[in-house]
Structures are given as structure tokens and as C-alpha cells.
Amino acid sequence: MQSPIQTYLEDLHNSLVSLTDGELASYIPELTKVNPDWFGISLVTMDGLAYNVGDADQLFTIQSVSKPFVYATALADRGVELVSSKIGVEPSGDAFNSISLDPQSGAPLNPMINAGAIATTSLLAGTDPQAQWQRLSSSMSTFVGRDLEIDDSVYHSESATGFRNRAIAWMLKNFGIIDGDPMAALENYFRQCSFEVSCQDLAFMAATLANGGVHPVTGRRALPAEHVERVLSVMATCGMYNYAGSWLFEVGMPAKSGVGGGIIAVLPGRFGIGIFSPKLDAKGNSARGIEVCKRLSKDFSLHVFGRSGHPSMALGRVYSGADAPSRRQPSSEMRSYLTEHARRIKYLCLHGYLAVDGVEYIIRRMLQMASDTHSYILDLHQVDGISDCAARLLNEARRGFGHDGIAVVFTRIHARKSITQALRRVAARGDRGYLSFEDNDLAVEWCENRLFGEAAIPPITFASLANFLLFKGMPLDLTEQVEAATTRQAFSTGQEIVTAGQAGDGRMYFIESGQVSVLVPLADGAHHRITSLSAGMNFGEMVLLGQTNRTATVCADTEVQCRILGSHQLEEITATSPMIKIILLENLARDMANSLRRATQWISALA
After folding, report:
1. What's the pLDDT tens digit per position in 350-380?
2. Does the domain at residues 4-300 carry the CATH identifier 3.40.50.1260?
3. What CATH class does 465-606 carry?
4. How many other CB atoms are there within 10 angstroms of residue 90's CB atom?
5. What is the distance between the alpha carbons of residues 191 and 193, in angstroms, rounded to a whole number?
6. Is pTM beyond 0.85 here?
7. Where are the chain's structural domains?
8. Which residues carry out catalysis?
9. H or E segment and range at residue 62
10. Rounded distance, CA 600 to CA 606, Å?
11. Distance (Å, rounded) from C-alpha 351 to C-alpha 166?
């Protein structure tokens, strides 16, 4: 099954391919030679999984997207105090190539405009420009996760036409912001803008920042953790030039664009995003890239000031039907089959507010377990809410797993209107909808029945009491005495066989065929099912211990055939054959001990 995240990104890409607004950057002649139709999207998770669509592997020059990473390197090399004395962090409100310098100190207003970026490049560690370039190249490669190369043709094109940037560099020298040769620092700046990267490279760079400065695949630290928030703060307020305020308002993620058509966006602790489409809007940002980020932010609830939390927090305990089987008492054939196959039923306990990244993590875990899974039970008892887009992805995953023969059912959401309404809203036309159960026991029993159906286990009938656990070890002649004292009675589906609170009539029931549920009444008038019984099992046996009132209601889930033994008939038999009652009481004690063991197993699984 394809991940719903991949499907979403493909649909998003297809919906924006027809958007042809914008123009190629022309002030660098070499950039006019790229294919204007290139369009890629990449999204990288905190554990390094990349979702790619379109031209995500196409190489292009990084341009100004390099600026936050070089600034990060300068912070690591020179420290906050020195870098802050040379470069400010205030939004300029001007275009990327504006000459925005503090009128008193001559310091650039921030490191995301060209003036600040040129100054930043000059601050990198190294005894000369060549050593500084080696440091810059190494640092950028660590952020990407591979060695980078530059596009010489673009570099020479930038250098040959960079007259405005030369003027800026000399002004920085005049104010003492650049200490050495400003032209050497400028050439390094031109080279850094000419690094060849792909859309996926950008997403990994963004994910490294989102992951606290550690590359999610290589595990190498690209930036000390204490500087990550400073870089992201400057990206949030200055990364999109004179569109920065609107970007933060509408999209709400730290970001950086470049005239090569790239955009990165960072959602700390959750995602790194890279987009590439070379046609730019009037402010120098990728036109398609802006629209992609707007859609992602809205659909995935990615605004940095919205809900947040690590995606893995959405998934709590994972265990199987072998750890917590249904509370029904299975026949020996069913018990044997479940012992071998119940592990193929998986419980997933979901937590908190489910946004897209959390659901993506959950679905990915489900995909990892799918080869050994027959049914999934998603327990939503501790879920506070779910976004519509997350609900849509979860519903698409349910349908996709269904096509692959794996059932996905929900439990404990019957009173959670916001969740049920979200799941209903996103149901596709013609979809029969999701299957939900009031508790996990009902859900796992349904899943067990589904396993039995796959195995084609025929319906089980018990014509002789000798096959019932309560008569285990009883000599055949004594069993035949009891059988002769019983009567047979049939019950229809839904019929109440005994009712909680009614005076006991002293009758024990032995199920020959069919299934019943044992229900305990609750204070609010509802009932809680404590077990299901099928052929070969019995109920009402507590009359052996002197119980006079029924403590539970027993209803027929299917057509049921029972043998019935009254307490008076039992007393008559045991008056002459007391061994019958001794064996019945011994087996009853053994059965109660097994029930206690199963209850303990359930508690252990849920702890």
C-alpha cells in the first residue's frame, strides 16, 4: 500500500503543475537557461524518511537558501557576541539585494539579505579565504548529508554580473564589517550560492534544523543545539525578504527562499520541507513553492504557533491479540488456532491531538508491521482530537490496508463527537465507512472471528456433556446420568436467556451450538460485555456455590441450542452419586482460576 502522505503530495503536485505564474531570474544570465517547468516537492521526517514527488532529484543552484546555513556556521565558529556585533537580526522589509545597513554602525540589518550574507561568509573560521571556503563547503555538506559541488557556469555568471554585490562588499569594508579583502569574501559568497542541490537535499537540510542540528540519517551534528533556535528565529522573521511578515502570518514556518527556485521550510521537531520550481514571483520567491507551503501549512496544521509535539508522541503502546485476547472462552479448536495466529492482531494506542505528522508516523509503523498483520485495532480512548487532513489520511490508510486484506477498526470513540464527525466528513463517496467498537474486547473478538473465517474453521457443536470442561475427568456412566436429567431448548438471535437481578431458577446451561454474550448492567443503564461463550461452554454454574440471583444478563448472539440442568435434578442425581458434584466443583474451581489468569494477562498487557 502506498503511504497516504505520498498520495497527498502527488495530488498536491498535480494540482499545481498548471500554475505557470512568475518569471525566471534574469539578473544572473545563466539562471535563464533552466527548464521553467521543473517542479519538485520533498518532505523529510525526523527519522529520515523522504517523501518525494516530481523533479525532486533535479539539481539546481542553491542561491540564497544557503544563507541560514552559512549564518549557522558563523555562529558555531565565532560565537553569538562577535557575529551579533557585525550583523543584526532585524527584518529589513526590503528586497534581497537591498543595501540595508544600520546608519550608525554600518552593520547589515540581518544575515538573510545579500549584505548580511556577504558579511557572514567573511566571518567563517579560517586563516585565509581558501581555508574559509573549505570550512563553508564542509559545513554545507554536513547539513545536506553528502559532498556538494558547485556549478561553475552559474558561479562565473554571478561573479561576472555581480556589480551591486561588489558595491555592498566595499561598503561593508568601509564600515569595518569585513576585515580582510572584501572581494575574496565576495567570491566565496558567489561560490556558496552556486552549490548544486536537489529538492530532496533542501528537505534534508531543513530536517537537520528541525532535528535540533543533527542530520536525521547520518546522525552527524551540523550545528550546536544552542544556535538552532537563533537560526530559525532569523529565518522566521527575515527569510522571505519583503514577504516575510505575510509568510509568517499565512504559512507560519521558519523558511528561506532563493532565486534559483528553491524554498526550505522548517517545522521544529516534525518536518523539513524542500520545494523547487524556478519561476519566481515579483518578490523573488518561487511562485509554486509559495502555494505548496500554503497548502501544506493549512492541510497539515503546520503553523509553528499552532499545536506541536513530536510525531512519535501520537503512538503509545503497541501489542498484539496474543497479549490481550478477547475475554470469551474459546473452544479448544479456537484456542489452538489463536495460540498460533493471535499475534497477527495488532493493537495501537493513539494519544493526544492527531495532526498529519503524528498520523504519518502511525501509518508508517502500520506499514512496517503489515507483513505480519491480519487486523489493526486503533484505540482512540486517549485522543483529544484530530485534524480533518489527519482524519483523511487515516481513512485513506484504512481503505488502502483493506484493499491489501488487512482490516483497520477503531475503538472507544462512540462518545467522542469531534473525532467521529471528522472521520465521517472525510469518508469518500461510496465508502461504507469505518468500523468502530465500544471497547477493545468487542474489537478483538471481531478480529478473532475474522481470523477464524480465514481459516474456514467449521461451526463447532457439542452433542455430549463429556466434551464440556465442567465434566472433564468424569466417568462416562456418571456423565450419562447427568445427560439423562437434562432438557434441550433453542434460543433465537437477540433473545435474553437470563436477566441480571432476577431470582435464580437453579438452572445451568450447556451450549451445544451458537454463541452468547454475558453482560453486566451499568449505573447509567448501559451494559458492559464481560465475555462471550460458544459451543462447549456453560453459564449459570454458580448455582453449584449456592447463588440465588442472576448477576449478569446472557443474550443469544446467534441461534443457540442448550442443554439445561436444573438444581433439583442435580440434587437427585448426586444424592446417589456424590462424585458427580465433587468433580463439577473441582472443574469449576479450575475454570475460575483460569479466568483470573486471563484477567491478569489483560491487565499486564494494558499496563
Report:
1. 998 888 888 999 999 999 999 999 999 999 9
2. no
3. mainly beta
4. 14
5. 5
6. no
7. 4-300, 311-455, 465-606
8. 64, 67, 189, 241, 259
9. none
10. 10
11. 55
